[in-house]
Amino acid sequence: MSKNNYFAANQCFLKSLFFFSAFIIFFIVQIRSLNHGKFVYCMDDAYIHLCLAEKLSFGNYGINTGEFSSPDSSILWPFLLMPFSSTVWHQLIPLILNIIFAILFLWEIHKILMEIFDPGEDRRFLFCIFFLEFVSIFSFNLLPLIFCGMEHCLQLFLACIVWRRIFLSSSKPHSIKFLLAIIFGPFIRYESLSVAIFGILFLMKEKQIGKALFCSFVIFSGLLGFSIFLKMHGSYFLPCSVLAKSNFFLYQNYVTGIWRNLMENFPDRIGFTFFLGALYFLSYFRHDWKYLGVSVILFLHLIFGKFKWFGRYEIYCQCFFLLSLIQIHKVLLTNFFRKKKTPFVFLVISPIVAVLFFPYFCWLVAIPVASNNIYDQQYQMHRFILENYKKPVAGNDIGWISYMNSNYVLDLCGLSSEKALKGRCFDSSNKWMEELTRENNVELAMIYEDWFDKIPHKWKKIAKLYLSRPVGLIEEPVSFYSINPGNQEALVKQLLEFRNTLPEKVRLEILKES
Description:
single chain, six-stranded mixed β-sheet
Protein backbone atom coordinates (compact mmCIF):
# COMPACT_ATOMS: atom_id res chain seq x y z
CA MET A 1 0.00 0.00 0.00
CA SER A 2 1.34 3.46 -0.93
CA LYS A 3 1.87 6.16 1.68
CA ASN A 4 -1.10 8.09 0.30
CA ASN A 5 -3.40 5.12 0.61
CA TYR A 6 -2.02 4.30 4.05
CA PHE A 7 -2.87 7.82 5.12
CA ALA A 8 -6.31 7.46 3.52
CA ALA A 9 -6.81 4.19 5.40
CA ASN A 10 -6.12 5.93 8.70
CA GLN A 11 -8.55 8.63 7.65
CA CYS A 12 -11.22 5.92 7.48
CA PHE A 13 -10.69 5.25 11.15
CA LEU A 14 -10.67 8.95 12.00
CA LYS A 15 -13.95 9.46 10.15
CA SER A 16 -15.63 6.61 12.01
CA LEU A 17 -14.16 7.98 15.25
CA PHE A 18 -15.63 11.39 14.44
CA PHE A 19 -19.13 9.95 14.07
CA PHE A 20 -18.63 7.82 17.17
CA SER A 21 -17.63 10.89 19.19
CA ALA A 22 -20.59 12.83 17.81
CA PHE A 23 -22.97 10.09 19.02
CA ILE A 24 -21.40 10.12 22.48
CA ILE A 25 -21.71 13.89 22.77
CA PHE A 26 -25.29 13.73 21.53
CA PHE A 27 -26.32 11.19 24.17
CA ILE A 28 -24.49 12.99 26.96
CA VAL A 29 -26.36 16.18 26.06
CA GLN A 30 -29.66 14.28 25.90
CA ILE A 31 -29.06 12.61 29.26
CA ARG A 32 -28.12 15.85 30.99
CA SER A 33 -31.10 17.60 29.44
CA LEU A 34 -33.59 15.01 30.72
CA ASN A 35 -31.90 14.78 34.13
CA HIS A 36 -31.77 18.51 34.90
CA GLY A 37 -28.05 18.80 34.20
CA LYS A 38 -26.94 15.59 35.93
CA PHE A 39 -25.24 12.70 34.16
CA VAL A 40 -26.68 9.32 35.21
CA TYR A 41 -25.89 5.85 33.87
CA CYS A 42 -28.57 3.71 32.24
CA MET A 43 -28.35 0.98 34.84
CA ASP A 44 -28.29 1.10 38.62
CA ASP A 45 -25.70 -1.71 38.61
CA ALA A 46 -23.01 0.80 37.59
CA TYR A 47 -23.32 2.39 41.01
CA ILE A 48 -22.74 -0.97 42.70
CA HIS A 49 -19.30 -0.97 41.07
CA LEU A 50 -18.73 2.62 42.18
CA CYS A 51 -19.91 1.87 45.71
CA LEU A 52 -17.66 -1.18 46.03
CA ALA A 53 -14.72 0.83 44.67
CA GLU A 54 -15.47 3.53 47.24
CA LYS A 55 -15.50 1.00 50.10
CA LEU A 56 -12.37 -0.74 48.78
CA SER A 57 -10.44 2.51 49.15
CA PHE A 58 -11.10 2.16 52.91
CA GLY A 59 -10.12 -1.53 52.98
CA ASN A 60 -13.66 -2.94 53.02
CA TYR A 61 -14.99 -5.44 50.44
CA GLY A 62 -18.75 -4.85 50.35
CA ILE A 63 -21.34 -2.10 50.11
CA ASN A 64 -21.65 -1.52 53.87
CA THR A 65 -18.76 -0.43 56.05
CA GLY A 66 -17.55 -3.26 58.26
CA GLU A 67 -19.63 -5.92 56.49
CA PHE A 68 -18.30 -8.30 53.84
CA SER A 69 -20.38 -8.95 50.72
CA SER A 70 -19.83 -9.88 47.07
CA PRO A 71 -22.17 -7.67 45.03
CA ASP A 72 -19.95 -7.28 41.97
CA SER A 73 -20.01 -9.51 38.89
CA SER A 74 -16.48 -8.44 37.91
CA ILE A 75 -13.38 -9.17 39.97
CA LEU A 76 -11.15 -6.42 38.57
CA TRP A 77 -13.49 -3.62 37.47
CA PRO A 78 -14.00 -2.11 40.96
CA PHE A 79 -10.23 -2.06 41.45
CA LEU A 80 -9.87 0.00 38.25
CA LEU A 81 -12.34 2.52 39.69
CA MET A 82 -10.87 2.51 43.21
CA PRO A 83 -7.89 4.92 42.66
CA PHE A 84 -10.32 7.69 41.72
CA SER A 85 -12.82 7.13 44.55
CA SER A 86 -11.73 10.24 46.48
CA THR A 87 -12.08 12.56 43.50
CA VAL A 88 -15.10 14.74 42.73
CA TRP A 89 -15.37 13.17 39.27
CA HIS A 90 -15.38 9.54 40.47
CA GLN A 91 -18.85 9.00 39.01
CA LEU A 92 -17.54 9.78 35.53
CA ILE A 93 -14.64 7.30 35.59
CA PRO A 94 -16.71 4.37 34.17
CA LEU A 95 -17.82 6.63 31.32
CA ILE A 96 -14.26 7.76 30.59
CA LEU A 97 -12.85 4.22 30.75
CA ASN A 98 -15.61 2.86 28.54
CA ILE A 99 -15.00 5.52 25.91
CA ILE A 100 -11.26 4.72 25.94
CA PHE A 101 -11.81 0.96 25.64
CA ALA A 102 -14.45 1.45 22.93
CA ILE A 103 -12.02 3.55 20.88
CA LEU A 104 -9.30 0.93 21.34
CA PHE A 105 -11.78 -1.71 20.20
CA LEU A 106 -12.65 0.30 17.08
CA TRP A 107 -8.94 0.62 16.32
CA GLU A 108 -8.60 -3.17 16.55
CA ILE A 109 -11.57 -3.53 14.20
CA HIS A 110 -9.91 -1.11 11.79
CA LYS A 111 -6.70 -3.16 11.76
CA ILE A 112 -8.68 -6.39 11.32
CA LEU A 113 -10.64 -5.04 8.34
CA MET A 114 -7.48 -3.66 6.74
CA GLU A 115 -5.80 -7.04 7.11
CA ILE A 116 -8.77 -9.06 5.84
CA PHE A 117 -9.58 -6.95 2.79
CA ASP A 118 -6.13 -5.47 2.05
CA PRO A 119 -7.35 -2.51 -0.05
CA GLY A 120 -3.97 -1.96 -1.69
CA GLU A 121 -4.28 0.79 -4.26
CA ASP A 122 -8.04 0.39 -4.71
CA ARG A 123 -9.53 3.37 -2.92
CA ARG A 124 -13.05 2.00 -3.33
CA PHE A 125 -12.22 -0.52 -0.62
CA LEU A 126 -11.38 2.29 1.76
CA PHE A 127 -14.95 3.59 1.55
CA CYS A 128 -16.30 0.11 2.22
CA ILE A 129 -13.95 -0.37 5.17
CA PHE A 130 -15.03 2.97 6.58
CA PHE A 131 -18.66 1.91 6.24
CA LEU A 132 -18.01 -1.41 8.01
CA GLU A 133 -16.23 0.45 10.82
CA PHE A 134 -19.18 2.81 11.10
CA VAL A 135 -21.61 -0.15 11.19
CA SER A 136 -19.45 -1.72 13.93
CA ILE A 137 -20.52 1.04 16.29
CA PHE A 138 -24.06 -0.35 16.14
CA SER A 139 -23.56 -4.06 15.45
CA PHE A 140 -21.28 -4.36 18.50
CA ASN A 141 -23.70 -2.31 20.64
CA LEU A 142 -20.94 0.09 21.71
CA LEU A 143 -23.00 3.13 22.68
CA PRO A 144 -25.43 1.36 25.06
CA LEU A 145 -22.47 -0.44 26.64
CA ILE A 146 -20.69 2.85 27.27
CA PHE A 147 -23.68 4.42 28.98
CA CYS A 148 -24.37 1.34 31.12
CA GLY A 149 -21.22 2.31 33.01
CA MET A 150 -20.03 -1.27 33.45
CA GLU A 151 -17.09 -3.42 32.35
CA HIS A 152 -18.37 -4.73 29.02
CA CYS A 153 -16.41 -2.40 26.71
CA LEU A 154 -13.17 -3.69 28.23
CA GLN A 155 -14.42 -7.28 27.90
CA LEU A 156 -15.21 -6.67 24.23
CA PHE A 157 -11.81 -5.10 23.58
CA LEU A 158 -9.98 -8.06 25.14
CA ALA A 159 -12.08 -10.57 23.18
CA CYS A 160 -11.24 -8.73 19.96
CA ILE A 161 -7.51 -8.96 20.69
CA VAL A 162 -7.81 -12.72 21.22
CA TRP A 163 -9.80 -13.21 18.01
CA ARG A 164 -7.32 -11.18 15.94
CA ARG A 165 -4.29 -13.11 17.16
CA ILE A 166 -5.95 -16.48 16.61
CA PHE A 167 -7.40 -15.86 13.16
CA LEU A 168 -5.11 -13.28 11.58
CA SER A 169 -1.72 -13.26 13.30
CA SER A 170 -0.90 -16.89 13.99
CA SER A 171 2.78 -16.16 13.34
CA LYS A 172 2.91 -14.15 16.58
CA PRO A 173 1.13 -16.22 19.20
CA HIS A 174 3.61 -14.98 21.82
CA SER A 175 2.36 -11.37 21.67
CA ILE A 176 2.29 -9.82 25.16
CA LYS A 177 -1.00 -8.11 24.34
CA PHE A 178 -2.51 -11.45 23.37
CA LEU A 179 -1.34 -13.13 26.58
CA LEU A 180 -2.65 -10.28 28.73
CA ALA A 181 -6.03 -10.43 26.95
CA ILE A 182 -6.26 -14.17 27.66
CA ILE A 183 -5.33 -13.74 31.32
CA PHE A 184 -7.39 -10.67 32.22
CA GLY A 185 -10.57 -11.60 30.31
CA PRO A 186 -12.04 -13.95 32.98
CA PHE A 187 -11.20 -11.47 35.74
CA ILE A 188 -13.22 -8.79 33.95
CA ARG A 189 -16.19 -11.10 33.29
CA TYR A 190 -16.50 -14.77 34.18
CA GLU A 191 -18.07 -15.46 30.75
CA SER A 192 -14.73 -14.68 29.10
CA LEU A 193 -13.30 -17.90 30.53
CA SER A 194 -14.41 -19.69 27.34
CA VAL A 195 -12.44 -17.15 25.26
CA ALA A 196 -9.39 -17.64 27.50
CA ILE A 197 -9.55 -21.43 27.10
CA PHE A 198 -9.77 -20.98 23.31
CA GLY A 199 -6.68 -18.78 23.42
CA ILE A 200 -4.78 -21.30 25.57
CA LEU A 201 -5.64 -24.15 23.18
CA PHE A 202 -4.39 -22.00 20.31
CA LEU A 203 -1.08 -21.48 22.13
CA MET A 204 -0.75 -25.23 22.62
CA LYS A 205 -1.57 -25.84 18.96
CA GLU A 206 1.23 -23.43 18.05
CA LYS A 207 3.56 -25.32 20.41
CA GLN A 208 3.79 -22.40 22.85
CA ILE A 209 3.38 -24.84 25.74
CA GLY A 210 5.17 -22.73 28.33
CA LYS A 211 3.00 -19.68 27.66
CA ALA A 212 -0.15 -21.82 27.61
CA LEU A 213 0.72 -23.33 30.98
CA PHE A 214 1.57 -19.90 32.40
CA CYS A 215 -1.78 -18.44 31.31
CA SER A 216 -3.62 -21.49 32.64
CA PHE A 217 -1.86 -21.27 36.00
CA VAL A 218 -2.53 -17.54 36.45
CA ILE A 219 -6.21 -17.84 35.51
CA PHE A 220 -6.88 -20.99 37.52
CA SER A 221 -5.01 -19.86 40.63
CA GLY A 222 -6.51 -16.36 40.43
CA LEU A 223 -10.12 -17.50 40.09
CA LEU A 224 -9.66 -20.23 42.69
CA GLY A 225 -7.97 -17.79 45.04
CA PHE A 226 -10.83 -15.33 44.71
CA SER A 227 -13.37 -18.10 45.34
CA ILE A 228 -11.47 -19.17 48.46
CA PHE A 229 -11.41 -15.54 49.56
CA LEU A 230 -15.21 -15.40 49.21
CA LYS A 231 -15.70 -18.71 51.00
CA MET A 232 -13.45 -17.69 53.88
CA HIS A 233 -15.74 -14.71 54.46
CA GLY A 234 -18.85 -16.87 54.61
CA SER A 235 -19.99 -16.34 51.02
CA TYR A 236 -20.35 -18.73 48.08
CA PHE A 237 -17.56 -19.74 45.68
CA LEU A 238 -18.98 -17.27 43.17
CA PRO A 239 -20.16 -13.69 43.86
CA CYS A 240 -23.79 -13.39 44.93
CA SER A 241 -24.36 -11.03 42.00
CA VAL A 242 -23.46 -13.87 39.60
CA LEU A 243 -25.53 -16.50 41.39
CA ALA A 244 -28.58 -14.23 41.74
CA LYS A 245 -28.94 -14.13 37.94
CA SER A 246 -28.20 -17.81 37.36
CA ASN A 247 -30.84 -20.43 36.69
CA PHE A 248 -28.39 -23.04 37.97
CA PHE A 249 -28.45 -21.54 41.46
CA LEU A 250 -32.19 -20.96 41.37
CA TYR A 251 -33.08 -24.55 40.48
CA GLN A 252 -30.04 -26.25 42.06
CA ASN A 253 -30.17 -28.84 39.30
CA TYR A 254 -27.87 -28.69 36.29
CA VAL A 255 -30.28 -30.38 33.89
CA THR A 256 -33.18 -28.13 34.93
CA GLY A 257 -30.89 -25.08 34.89
CA ILE A 258 -29.63 -25.81 31.37
CA TRP A 259 -33.15 -26.43 30.08
CA ARG A 260 -34.50 -23.29 31.71
CA ASN A 261 -31.62 -21.20 30.37
CA LEU A 262 -32.08 -22.53 26.85
CA MET A 263 -35.82 -21.83 26.97
CA GLU A 264 -35.06 -18.23 27.93
CA ASN A 265 -32.31 -17.77 25.34
CA PHE A 266 -33.79 -19.37 22.22
CA PRO A 267 -36.73 -16.95 21.81
CA ASP A 268 -34.29 -14.04 21.97
CA ARG A 269 -33.46 -12.73 18.49
CA ILE A 270 -29.72 -12.53 19.17
CA GLY A 271 -29.76 -15.89 20.99
CA PHE A 272 -31.41 -17.68 18.08
CA THR A 273 -28.97 -15.99 15.67
CA PHE A 274 -26.09 -17.34 17.77
CA PHE A 275 -27.60 -20.82 17.66
CA LEU A 276 -27.77 -20.76 13.86
CA GLY A 277 -24.27 -19.28 13.72
CA ALA A 278 -22.88 -22.02 15.98
CA LEU A 279 -24.32 -24.70 13.68
CA TYR A 280 -22.93 -22.87 10.65
CA PHE A 281 -19.40 -22.67 12.11
CA LEU A 282 -19.52 -26.38 12.89
CA SER A 283 -19.76 -27.04 9.15
CA TYR A 284 -16.38 -25.31 8.69
CA PHE A 285 -14.64 -27.45 11.31
CA ARG A 286 -12.97 -29.65 8.67
CA HIS A 287 -11.52 -26.60 6.94
CA ASP A 288 -10.15 -24.97 10.10
CA TRP A 289 -10.37 -26.21 13.71
CA LYS A 290 -10.64 -22.61 14.95
CA TYR A 291 -14.28 -22.39 13.87
CA LEU A 292 -15.07 -25.27 16.21
CA GLY A 293 -13.80 -23.02 19.00
CA VAL A 294 -16.13 -20.22 17.90
CA SER A 295 -19.05 -22.64 17.78
CA VAL A 296 -18.28 -23.91 21.29
CA ILE A 297 -18.10 -20.35 22.66
CA LEU A 298 -21.54 -19.59 21.21
CA PHE A 299 -23.06 -22.84 22.49
CA LEU A 300 -21.62 -22.31 25.97
CA HIS A 301 -23.20 -18.89 26.18
CA LEU A 302 -26.54 -20.29 25.08
CA ILE A 303 -26.31 -22.90 27.85
CA PHE A 304 -24.88 -20.82 30.69
CA GLY A 305 -25.19 -17.17 29.66
CA LYS A 306 -27.84 -14.49 29.43
CA PHE A 307 -29.22 -12.08 26.84
CA LYS A 308 -31.24 -8.85 26.94
CA TRP A 309 -30.55 -6.07 29.50
CA PHE A 310 -28.90 -3.65 27.09
CA GLY A 311 -27.30 -6.48 25.12
CA ARG A 312 -24.32 -6.52 27.46
CA TYR A 313 -24.04 -10.17 28.45
CA GLU A 314 -23.42 -11.69 25.02
CA ILE A 315 -21.22 -8.98 23.52
CA TYR A 316 -17.96 -10.96 23.73
CA CYS A 317 -19.67 -13.70 21.68
CA GLN A 318 -20.82 -11.08 19.20
CA CYS A 319 -17.17 -10.26 18.56
CA PHE A 320 -16.29 -13.86 17.65
CA PHE A 321 -19.54 -14.36 15.74
CA LEU A 322 -19.33 -11.36 13.40
CA LEU A 323 -15.58 -11.32 12.82
CA SER A 324 -15.56 -15.05 12.07
CA LEU A 325 -18.36 -14.59 9.54
CA ILE A 326 -16.39 -11.85 7.80
CA GLN A 327 -13.24 -14.01 7.80
CA ILE A 328 -15.05 -17.01 6.28
CA HIS A 329 -16.61 -14.93 3.51
CA LYS A 330 -13.76 -12.49 2.89
CA VAL A 331 -13.33 -13.64 -0.74
CA LEU A 332 -17.04 -13.25 -1.43
CA LEU A 333 -17.09 -9.83 0.26
CA THR A 334 -13.93 -8.74 -1.55
CA ASN A 335 -15.44 -9.58 -4.94
CA PHE A 336 -18.69 -7.89 -3.93
CA PHE A 337 -16.89 -4.69 -2.89
CA ARG A 338 -14.78 -4.73 -6.04
CA LYS A 339 -17.71 -5.18 -8.46
CA LYS A 340 -20.37 -3.04 -6.80
CA LYS A 341 -20.46 0.69 -6.43
CA THR A 342 -20.21 2.15 -2.93
CA PRO A 343 -23.86 3.35 -2.66
CA PHE A 344 -25.08 -0.11 -3.64
CA VAL A 345 -22.92 -1.68 -0.92
CA PHE A 346 -24.49 0.66 1.63
CA LEU A 347 -28.00 -0.21 0.47
CA VAL A 348 -27.35 -3.95 0.74
CA ILE A 349 -25.45 -4.09 4.06
CA SER A 350 -27.52 -1.58 6.05
CA PRO A 351 -30.83 -3.53 5.99
CA ILE A 352 -29.01 -6.77 6.87
CA VAL A 353 -27.43 -5.16 9.94
CA ALA A 354 -30.74 -3.53 10.92
CA VAL A 355 -32.64 -6.85 10.76
CA LEU A 356 -30.00 -8.98 12.49
CA PHE A 357 -29.31 -6.55 15.31
CA PHE A 358 -32.62 -4.79 15.73
CA PRO A 359 -32.53 -5.26 19.57
CA TYR A 360 -29.32 -3.25 19.71
CA PHE A 361 -30.99 -0.36 17.90
CA CYS A 362 -33.80 -0.52 20.46
CA TRP A 363 -31.26 -0.26 23.29
CA LEU A 364 -29.61 2.61 21.45
CA VAL A 365 -32.82 4.61 21.29
CA ALA A 366 -33.56 3.80 24.95
CA ILE A 367 -30.32 5.30 26.31
CA PRO A 368 -31.63 8.76 27.36
CA VAL A 369 -34.93 7.49 28.79
CA ALA A 370 -33.25 4.58 30.61
CA SER A 371 -30.89 7.07 32.22
CA ASN A 372 -33.83 9.27 33.12
CA ASN A 373 -35.59 6.28 34.75
CA ILE A 374 -32.59 5.76 37.05
CA TYR A 375 -32.55 9.49 37.78
CA ASP A 376 -36.28 9.58 38.59
CA GLN A 377 -36.23 6.66 41.00
CA GLN A 378 -32.86 5.33 42.21
CA TYR A 379 -31.17 8.73 42.35
CA GLN A 380 -34.16 10.32 44.10
CA MET A 381 -34.18 7.44 46.60
CA HIS A 382 -30.49 8.17 47.19
CA ARG A 383 -31.33 11.83 47.82
CA PHE A 384 -34.13 10.95 50.24
CA ILE A 385 -31.83 8.73 52.33
CA LEU A 386 -29.03 11.29 52.50
CA GLU A 387 -31.06 14.48 52.87
CA ASN A 388 -34.18 13.40 54.78
CA TYR A 389 -34.22 9.92 56.25
CA LYS A 390 -30.55 9.38 57.29
CA LYS A 391 -31.13 5.86 58.68
CA PRO A 392 -30.67 2.22 57.58
CA VAL A 393 -32.91 1.21 54.68
CA ALA A 394 -33.79 -1.90 52.67
CA GLY A 395 -34.11 -2.09 48.88
CA ASN A 396 -33.78 -4.33 45.86
CA ASP A 397 -31.86 -1.87 43.65
CA ILE A 398 -28.86 -1.12 45.82
CA GLY A 399 -26.53 0.84 43.53
CA TRP A 400 -27.46 4.49 43.98
CA ILE A 401 -28.86 4.06 47.50
CA SER A 402 -25.52 2.56 48.65
CA TYR A 403 -23.12 4.82 46.76
CA MET A 404 -21.80 7.78 48.80
CA ASN A 405 -24.04 6.70 51.67
CA SER A 406 -22.67 5.92 55.15
CA ASN A 407 -26.00 4.52 56.36
CA TYR A 408 -26.61 0.77 56.32
CA VAL A 409 -28.32 -0.65 53.20
CA LEU A 410 -30.00 -4.06 53.37
CA ASP A 411 -30.15 -5.72 49.95
CA LEU A 412 -33.39 -7.70 49.64
CA CYS A 413 -32.58 -8.87 46.11
CA GLY A 414 -29.55 -10.87 47.22
CA LEU A 415 -26.72 -9.30 45.21
CA SER A 416 -24.87 -8.43 48.41
CA SER A 417 -26.54 -10.69 50.96
CA GLU A 418 -26.31 -14.49 51.10
CA LYS A 419 -29.26 -14.68 53.48
CA ALA A 420 -31.43 -12.53 51.23
CA LEU A 421 -30.41 -14.53 48.16
CA LYS A 422 -31.38 -17.81 49.84
CA GLY A 423 -34.62 -16.37 51.15
CA ARG A 424 -35.72 -14.82 47.85
CA CYS A 425 -34.92 -17.98 45.86
CA PHE A 426 -35.93 -20.79 48.21
CA ASP A 427 -38.23 -19.44 50.95
CA SER A 428 -41.82 -19.10 49.79
CA SER A 429 -42.76 -17.31 52.99
CA ASN A 430 -41.80 -13.78 53.88
CA LYS A 431 -40.22 -14.53 57.25
CA TRP A 432 -36.71 -14.02 55.92
CA MET A 433 -37.57 -10.40 55.05
CA GLU A 434 -38.87 -9.78 58.55
CA GLU A 435 -35.83 -11.42 60.15
CA LEU A 436 -33.27 -9.51 58.10
CA THR A 437 -34.90 -6.12 58.65
CA ARG A 438 -35.18 -6.82 62.39
CA GLU A 439 -31.55 -7.97 62.66
CA ASN A 440 -30.29 -4.84 60.92
CA ASN A 441 -32.62 -2.31 62.57
CA VAL A 442 -34.23 -1.37 59.25
CA GLU A 443 -37.56 0.49 59.45
CA LEU A 444 -37.98 1.53 55.80
CA ALA A 445 -38.06 -0.59 52.63
CA MET A 446 -38.03 0.89 49.11
CA ILE A 447 -38.78 -1.93 46.67
CA TYR A 448 -40.44 -3.02 43.44
CA GLU A 449 -43.34 -5.16 44.65
CA ASP A 450 -43.31 -7.46 41.63
CA TRP A 451 -39.81 -8.67 42.55
CA PHE A 452 -41.19 -10.52 45.59
CA ASP A 453 -43.82 -13.25 45.93
CA LYS A 454 -45.00 -12.02 49.31
CA ILE A 455 -44.59 -8.83 51.30
CA PRO A 456 -44.78 -9.17 55.12
CA HIS A 457 -48.32 -8.26 56.18
CA LYS A 458 -46.97 -6.17 59.06
CA TRP A 459 -45.28 -3.82 56.60
CA LYS A 460 -47.43 -0.80 55.70
CA LYS A 461 -47.22 0.72 52.25
CA ILE A 462 -47.14 4.48 52.67
CA ALA A 463 -45.97 5.87 49.32
CA LYS A 464 -45.22 5.20 45.67
CA LEU A 465 -42.59 6.91 43.53
CA TYR A 466 -43.56 7.09 39.85
CA LEU A 467 -41.40 7.68 36.79
CA SER A 468 -41.83 10.80 34.69
CA ARG A 469 -41.27 8.75 31.50
CA PRO A 470 -42.27 5.11 32.14
CA VAL A 471 -41.08 3.76 28.80
CA GLY A 472 -37.61 2.50 29.68
CA LEU A 473 -36.37 -0.77 31.20
CA ILE A 474 -38.58 -0.41 34.29
CA GLU A 475 -42.08 1.01 34.26
CA GLU A 476 -43.38 0.12 37.73
CA PRO A 477 -43.30 2.50 40.70
CA VAL A 478 -41.09 2.09 43.76
CA SER A 479 -43.15 1.30 46.85
CA PHE A 480 -42.18 2.71 50.25
CA TYR A 481 -42.99 0.43 53.19
CA SER A 482 -42.95 1.40 56.84
CA ILE A 483 -41.65 -1.63 58.72
CA ASN A 484 -42.04 -0.16 62.20
CA PRO A 485 -45.61 1.13 62.86
CA GLY A 486 -44.27 3.54 65.48
CA ASN A 487 -42.12 5.25 62.86
CA GLN A 488 -44.86 5.65 60.26
CA GLU A 489 -45.99 9.18 61.14
CA ALA A 490 -42.45 10.60 61.17
CA LEU A 491 -41.68 8.83 57.91
CA VAL A 492 -44.75 10.32 56.20
CA LYS A 493 -43.67 13.82 57.27
CA GLN A 494 -40.20 13.25 55.82
CA LEU A 495 -41.72 12.04 52.55
CA LEU A 496 -43.97 15.10 52.37
CA GLU A 497 -40.95 17.35 52.77
CA PHE A 498 -39.04 15.36 50.19
CA ARG A 499 -41.91 15.50 47.69
CA ASN A 500 -41.47 19.27 47.38
CA THR A 501 -37.89 18.80 46.16
CA LEU A 502 -38.62 16.26 43.41
CA PRO A 503 -38.04 17.11 39.73
CA GLU A 504 -41.01 18.15 37.64
CA LYS A 505 -43.22 15.24 36.51
CA VAL A 506 -41.69 12.84 39.06
CA ARG A 507 -44.65 11.96 41.24
CA LEU A 508 -44.52 10.75 44.85
CA GLU A 509 -47.94 9.53 45.93
CA ILE A 510 -48.40 9.48 49.71
CA LEU A 511 -50.93 6.79 50.61
CA LYS A 512 -51.26 7.54 54.31
CA GLU A 513 -50.82 11.26 54.94
CA SER A 514 -50.75 12.38 58.58
